[in-house]
Each structure stands twice: as C-alpha cells, then as structure tokens.
Amino acid sequence: AGYGAYLLQKQGSIILPGQATSGDPFNNPLLFLVPALMALALTLLILRLLPFLMMVVSWIASKTNSVGFLLATRYLSRDPGFYAAPLILLILTLSLSAFTASLAQTLDNHLYDQSYYRTGADVQLVELGQDNTPAEGSAGGEGGSGAAAQTGTAATANGTSTTGSTAAGAQPEGPQWVFIPVSEHLKVPEIQAATRVGEFTASIQVQGEWKESSFIGIDRIDFPKAAYWRRDFAPASLGALMNALAIAPEGILLRRDFMAQNALRVGDAVQMRVSSFGQHAEMTMKIAGEIDYFPTWYPDPEKDLPLVVGNLDYLFEQAGGEMPYNVWAKVKSGIGFEKMVDDLRKLQFSVLDWSASTKRIADEQRRPERQGLFGVLSVGFLAAAFLTVLGFLLYALFSFRRRFIELGTLRAIGLSTLQLTIFLICELAFLILLGLGAGTAIGVFISQAFIPYLQIGTGATANVPPYQVEIAWFAINRLYLLFGALFLVAFAVLIVLLMRMKVFQAIKLGETV
C-alpha cells in the first residue's frame, strides 16, 4: 500500500504522465487497488494497537463501581482474537463505503465545477457590436450611430463613452465598435447579473524577451456578481483581487507558476502589447495579484501561453475604443434559454451564439457510462453497509451462544441480569463505536489521499479545474443511523436471551447448546 501511494505521488495521476492521449489507464491496474489495500493495511494496524488501548480503558474501568463495564473492557483487552473478524468487517467496509460515497460526490460536484469553469457563468453570450468605422470618403457611419463615428466615441458598459480619436474628422486606427451598455441585459427578466469578459491576443515582456500570451479583460465590479469562482483558484479571495484591480487601473493578475519562473513579484511593472480586431495597445502594467486558475482558461502544454487578467475599460482606453467581447450572465434557475436569447435580440443585442452550464451538466448526466459508474458506486456502498450490519448482528447472537456457560457461571456467582446486560452491551457498544470511528477516519484519509489521483481524461479540459475532494458526510451519517438501529435491535435481542436463560442449564455439564 505504501509503495502504491509512493507511485501515485510520483506520477501525479493513476495513469502515467505520457498516457493522457493514449487512452490506456490500465497500464498498471494494481494502482486501482491501492485505496483498498491502504484501508486493509490501516485496519490491521488498528487491530494490533487495540488491545493496548483497551488495557488503558480497563484500568480506568477498575476505578469505577460498574462490574459490567469492567468485565467488558477486560474481555476486549485479553481476547482480541475473538472480535477481530467482526471488527475487520466493520472498519474495512465502513472505510470503503465512505471512500466510494466520497468519490461519487466528488465526481458529481466536479461535473458542476467543470461545466461552470468551461462556460464561466450560468450563461456565456457571444455578442458582436456594430462596426461603426466611417467608409472611405464619408463623414460618418450608417444608421443612428453615425454621430458616434464622427466624434470617434464608443459606448461603455456604464453608459458613458470613451474617445477613440479626439480630433474632429480624424480617421481612427482600425475599426470603431459601438456596443449597447451591458446593463441593458438586466431588462430581460431571466437575467440577474451580467458582466463583460473579453479575451485578446497579447504579448508580455519578461526577461528582455516578448512572450506571446492571452489577455482576459474583465469588469471588476460586475464580474463577482455573475462569474463562477472557486476559492482555490487564487491564494487571495475574489474580493481582494478585484480590490487590487480597483486600486491600480493598470493592474494585472498573473499565474503564480509563471511569476515564479520569471522572478516576478506583486508590484513589479511589465510591458504588454494587446492586438485584436485591428486595434492595438501598448501598455505598462503593474502586477496586482496572483492566480492559479481563471474560468474558461486552459493551459496549453505545447504553446505554454501565460495568462494575464486585467481591467477591460483600461484596455479600451489605451486602445482608443472598444473591441468585441463576450457577456457572462447569471440567470434564474429553470429558465428557457432560447426565449432569453430571443428577448435579448429584441433589445437589439447581436447574439451570435450562447452556451449554458446547466444544459451541459444535464447532457453529461444522461450519458450511459456515467450512469453506470454511479450505479456501481451506489450498489457497492449499499452492499458494504448491508454486509456489515448482517455480520455484526450474527456476531452478537453467536457470541451469546458461544459464551452461554460463561454467562451462566457469572449469573450463578451473584451477578444480576442488569450487570450481565451492561457487560454485553458495553462490549457491543465498544466494538461498534471503535469500528465507526476507525472506519470513518480511514475512509476520510484514503479519500483525501487518493481521490485527487483518480482525475483522468484526455485533453486540457479533463483535468482543469482539479478535483476538490468532497467527503460524503450525509451518506456516512446514514450509516451511523443504520448502526444505531442495529445497536437497538441487538440490545433488545440480548435482553430477551438473558431473561430466558436458566442458570442450571448453563452450568450443567453437557448442556452447552
């Protein structure tokens, strides 16, 4: 088990690093057994340590006046071989049940994270504004936006305008785009929040060289209201990152690994060039914060393009006008997306395409292979729980019959039925509590240790964002309730058997059945 854990740690995944495109995750199939082997190894280790623990509890029990409690602790400390099998069954099955339930919950939550990361929000709208560039030899554009073209202005998200070419009659460089303010999206009843997000080709100067990069421009005020974000995407909170961009309009966010490779720190200044749709901007930017992931962005091992996130309005100001961008929106649950898009087009928004996270999640959940995987995990969880309950119930009954003479002798020398009941119940309670505690601890441990290595798939989108392990406490609590019911049933059965026990039959030679 230790060697398997070592291999997984070195590989970083259950498949070899070079096999992501080969589709052969079974090159070393024994690695799939490592979580179960680790659970078994830790279970056996706990069994070796349990007698020493019970000796300590027995010493504490000797200081009390409870004969039944003392008998139970001494029995468990002196005869560990008798209860080893049921305890192994309880700890192993509970730990594996917790692992499979946590794996299923992690996979389910990861589908949500993966879909929202790919879209960026509930809905991503691909929109295009009007190209209001004056035709050659004309004074302005067409329709009602000709005045904007003459003065070289373009509407911004807050309804104001930014100047592209200040001199009257001067021809601006590249096309001049006019967009309806993004706040107009909120007039559609289904949309609760909307934000502009633009991705542009850029270059960043590091270590004296220009390196091709990807620049994502955002609205720092609207972005947190609409976009999907997970706490592990950056060392700082999303609010802190947006505040850093507010303090420095020229501020940018860079990935931590890129900053470490190029000896960059927060507060350093870097040169950037952004070029898109025929417009250009050369800017001096200030590093305002660090990130690890950003929605819709995926690392490309071949191109190795660094990610740069900055203020969209500052980019437009430096470029002399706006450029086409996408709109990320937060919408009400259960809406009709086609109707929402139709409503937007009625408001004169040029929606070219759209994608919705919830639609992608629903399509993925209908895949037969996914349903089969979750079916196997559910059946495994239920089967393990059923076998454990059955095994412990049989243990309680067979334990009573095997120790019939012992219990009769104790009854004959003066122990009351209540003391014998306390003796048996304390013994059973110790085993169940120890099994539940150890099984849960092992299950949580192997889930945290091994589930991250089970993130396999082909392409950049399969492993981004990384698994965020979710312990299935709801399923584990249901097991606790199940064992609580088992304890009550065993308690009632043992009381009935003790009440029906005849001392002369228990101590008479030959009457041991």
Distance between the termini: 44 Å
Query: What is the string of helix and strand elements?
Result: HHHHEEHEEEEEHHEHEEEHEHEHHHHHH
Level of helix content?
40-55%
List unreliable stretches of 5+ residues: 17-26, 135-172, 509-513
Choose one word for the global shape. elongated
* Number of DSSP strand runs: 13
Number of helices: 16
Give the helix/strand class.
alpha+beta
Largest sheet: 6 strands, mixed, barrel
- Report strand order across the widest sheet: 6-7-11-8-10-9
Mean pLDDT: 79
Radius of gyration: 33 Å
Proportion of beta-strand residues: 15-25%
Structural write-up:
With 513 residues, the protein is an alpha+beta fold. The protein has 16 helices and 13 strands. It has a six-stranded mixed beta barrel. A two-stranded antiparallel ribbon has the order 2-5. α2 packs across α4, α2 packs antiparallel against α14 (417-450) and α3 (67-78) packs across α14 (417-450). The protein is elongated, with a radius of gyration of 33 Å.
SSE inventory with pairings:
Elements: H1 2-11, H2 34-61, H3 67-78, H4 80-119, E1 123-127, E2 130-131, H5 146-151, E3 153-155, E4 161-163, E5 177-178, E6 191-206, E7 209-218, H6 223-226, H7 238-247, E8 251-255, H8 256-261, E9 269-276, E10 279-291, E11 307-311, H9 312-319, E12 326-331, H10 337-346, E13 351-356, H11 357-365, H12 368-402, H13 404-412, H14 417-450, H15 473-500, H16 503-507
Parallel strand pairs: 7-11, 8-10
Antiparallel strand pairs: 1-12, 1-13, 2-5, 3-4, 6-7, 6-9, 6-12, 8-11, 9-10
Helix pairs in contact: 2-3, 2-4, 2-14, 3-14, 4-11, 4-12, 4-14, 4-15, 12-15, 14-15
